[in-house]
Please model this.
Amino acid sequence: MKQRAFTIRIAEYDHLEDLPDPRADLVRQAMEAAGRAYAPYSSCHVGAAVLLGNGKIITGNNQENAAYPSGLCAERVAIFYAGSQYPDVPAKSIAIAAMVNGIFQEEPVTPCGGCRQVLFEKEMHQGVPLEVILYGRKKIQVLRQATDLLPLPFVFKKAP
Ligand code: THU
Model:
């Protein structure tokens, strides 16, 4: 029997202004995007902003639907849109923020399991780390790479 341990490093900041450039701006864009979310069912408005290798910033937000599972999370809206428009440009950083009743969450917002899998695959596919910035009013957390969110992702090898 062997044992394996995974360690992740998280940088924590008390204030948005303390984030090294251009991260504070990316968070602000995620916060603005949250304001444009379509979330009449959960009232949880999530925003994501993705910084691409070409300097462009793509934002997305959650889009809900009366047929609940048909909705999509903010992170996936942003990452899929980025992939659809700039398939060969890596995503360098993604910021995520969420608010309920117009108030941003105190604790940093962490992506759901499905979004972690999507962020992981984006990172693998592009071969460049995808930094993840989780915004909370109390603190902001920065993870160096999306893989840190999902140590045991789903992968499969195609039959030869
Ligand atoms: N949501 C996101 O946008 N991102 C996540 O990582 C988790 C949840 C959305 C989905 C749904 O519209 C609302 O938040 C409540 O679950």
Remarks:
- The CA atoms of residues 102 and 111 lie 20 Å apart.
- The chain is about 25% helix and 25% strand.
